[in-house]
Amino acid sequence: MTTKTTLRGAIVSGLLLSTLSAAMATTNAMDMKFAKIAAQGGIFEVKSSQIALQKSQNLQVLSVAKRMVKEHGAANEELKTVAQNNRMTLPADTDPMHKAIIAKLSGLSGTAFDKAYVGSQEKAHTDTVKLFEKEIATGKNAGLTAFASKNLPDIEDHTKMIYQVGSNLGVHAAKMPAMKPAMMPSNMSGHNM
Fold first, then answer.
1. pTM beyond 0.90
2. CA triple 107-111-117, angle to 5 deg
3. CA torsion sign, 36 to 38 to 41 to 45?
4. CA 171 vs CA 46, 76, 111, 162, 187: distances in Å
5. For residues 120 and 101, is the Cβ–Cβ distance under 8 A?
């Protein structure tokens, strides 16, 4: 090996390490917490909605579940890519609280299932809107804040839809969150979606 080749290799290695260090330095504790909670929440959305697709007979609930599986599944994959690009490890499963909700949902059927599923979705989406807004406002990692910014409108739209279905079922697990005017459902009176 020549001195020139060794020097060139050291320079390239140094540049790569410097780039990696800069990327990692722009990831703060909030970013790491956001990525973890968003991943666990996304896993919950897909798993609970897959159960709804098997158990529910309500067309509105089935519509919500199909959309959650498709859109949260895609967002989960997008978050994995962002995490990999930032050398972050995401959880492979949801957290214990959401596992308990999934276990409870698995034991229900009929209207009781539909109400519990929609109630869990209301709570999850209300919390997720707050989580994503906080990441957008305080996150330092450009990839994660871009992910949050891109996906927040869909989550807000999910929230509208879920609250409408919850209204139609006559149950709400959480108080309707303060929503931006563009996020407010056009009709909360219980008409079909």
1. no
2. 60
3. negative
4. 22, 28, 11, 11, 16
5. yes
What's the pLDDT tens digit per position in 92-113?
999 999 999 999 999 999 999 9
3-state secondary structure 131-190: HHHHHHHHCCCHHHHHHHHHHHHHHHHHHHHHHHHHHHHCCCCCCCCCCCHHHCCCCCCC
Query: Residue 170 contacts by C-beta under 8 Å, 6 or more apart in sequence?
Result: 115
Cα angle vertex 115, ends 110, 117, to 5°? 95
User: pLDDT per residue over 59-83, tens digit each?
Assistant: 999 999 999 999 999 999 999 999 9
Q: 3-class secondary structure for 113-140?
A: HHHHHHHHHHHHHHHHHHHHHHHHHHCC
For 28-183, give the CATH class.
Answer: mainly alpha
